[in-house]
Design brief:
Number of domains: 1
Distance between the termini: 35 Å
Strand order of the largest sheet: 1-2-3-4-5-6-7-8
Order of helices and strands: EHEHEHEHEHHEHEHEHHHH
Largest sheet: 8 strands, parallel, barrel
Mean pLDDT: 96
Number of helices: 12
Shape: globular
CATH architecture: Alpha-Beta Barrel
Radius of gyration: 18 Å
Helix content: 40-55%
Structural class: alpha/beta
CATH class: Alpha Beta
CATH superfamily: Aldolase class I
Low-confidence stretches: none
Length: 295
């Protein structure tokens, strides 16, 4: 199981003029690798992929691969609601620095479960790289059911799912029925520890952009059965996790990264930076976490 533990959905750092901030992106990669992150996810929702040009996407991926230097696996977000276009893009993709794809269920079209299965089977046929399914009905407007995920888990190179439905019963049904080598990853930071204690295999996290050490320590404790430590870290980061999403993602996490001096809080429209009130609240919460970590 290649993709397990703490994965991080990387932000794309921007300069104040909106251009790609290469130095900050390189520093962010090193920050992740040095603080317990198990794999990186490039160009997901948190990376503001929808506002990147094709040239910028290529540049961001190249920077991450170059800075990572093969230290941990790299997963690339590849999704589309046009199956034929996605099949073409994946079939033509060539980059040995990418270890797998994360692909969201088609957005906007609201396909049937049969359509979702056929969509993923079509893209799985044109690549040898492993594929992680991504169920995020809050953004796609259609839920990928547990039955659909379990059906797709039988496809040889579909190796896992990022489950962001927020439906714990659905997650448990997947855990109950999935093959032993199929990774069930939480797509909700606040549910990552509870899912891990039920037998989940990890998380693709937004929060760990800023708090990789705290998050990976929490997850590793959960995997090892040390529930006291896992609960301690879970509740330490719970409030700031909610703050990160209060005014949109990645606006919240970029604010925290700015407070930590890792990258600027610049986002591209239609996103905006968080309010001064939320930034102040986040700074107080972050100071409290830093104090707890020193105890």
């Amino acid at each position: 199981m290649q993709f397990k533990g703490t994965g991080v959905a990387l932000v794309t750092p921007f300069n104040h003029d909106g251009s790609i901030d290469e130095n900050s992106l390189r520093n962010l990669v090193d920050y992740q690798v040095g603080n317990g992150t198990d794999f990186l996810v490039v160009q997901g929702t948190t990376g503001e992929t929808a506002t990147l040009t094709e040239e910028e996407k290529q540049s961001v991926l190249a920077i991450v691969i170059d800075q990572n230097k093969g230290r941990i696996p790299v997963v690339l977000g590849m999704a589309d609601n046009n199956t034929a276009a996605l099949v073409k893009a994946i079939s033509e993709f060539e980059n040995d620095g990418v270890d797998g794809f994360l692909s969201a269920s088609p957005h906007y079209n609201k396909p049937s479960q049969r359509g979702i299965i056929a969509h993923f089977e079509a893209i799985a046929k044109v690549t040898k790289k492993p594929i992680i399914l991504y169920n995020v009905p809050g953004r796609t407007s259609s839920n990928m059911t547990a039955e659909t995920t379990l059906s797709l888990s039988k496809v040889a190179n579909i190796v896992g799912v990022k489950e962001a439905s927020g439906n714990m019963d659905q997650v448990m049904q997947i855990l109950k029925g999935a093959p032993s080598d199929f990774a069930v990853l939480s797509g909700e930071d606040s549910l990552a520890m509870p899912i891990a204690t039920l037998g989940g295999h990890g998380v693709i996290s937004v929060v760990a952009n800023a708090l990789p050490k705290e998050f990976s320590t929490m997850m590793n404790a959960a995997f090892g059965g040390d529930l006291k430590t896992a609960r301690k870290h879970h509740f330490e980061v719970l409030d700031i996790t909610n703050q990160f999403f209060a005014e949109g993602n990645p606006s919240g996490i970029k604010c925290c990264l700015d407070l930590l001096g890792i990258c600027k809080d610049t986002v591209r429209l239609p996103l905006t930076t968080v309010s001064a009130t939320l930034k102040e609240e986040m700074n107080k919460e972050l100071s409290g976490i830093a104090l707890i970590s020193k105890q």
